[in-house]
Amino acid sequence: MSSVTTHPSLSLVSTSHAPAAVGPYTQAVRVGDLLFCSGSLGLDPFTGKLVEGGVEAQARQALKNMKAVIEAGGSEVGKVVKTTVFLQSMDDFKPVNAIYAEFFGEHKPARSAVQVARLPLDALFEIEAIVSDFRGNSRSQDES
Fold this sequence. Notes:
globular; six-stranded mixed sheet; alpha+beta; CATH 3.30.1330.40
């Protein structure tokens, strides 16, 4: 079996302010002006256990964890381009949507939300994100 090494064009991102990866992956990878964040669960970064309080508490903690990873990657939540939300039950969409809207405020990234059969550690909520750190012209296509 050959050993694969990380290409120099990629930077692995890790922070102790978010839970450690629970498998053979990293919290995020930066390539160029993009940061690809792995899925964040509602884990307490210090205990490594899912927070109590149901889907609402897990969603809040997962978003907090994702924010810590984004900031460790040198970006900010206002530069999130796309998220994918994974729900154990689509019945939780409405309360999760309210928490998501509160977290992002006026910023509205593109998003997909799907119900899955099962999440790691039997979590109720998971979120992943793609974040931009582009520092060039910020005009939208409609403004040009």
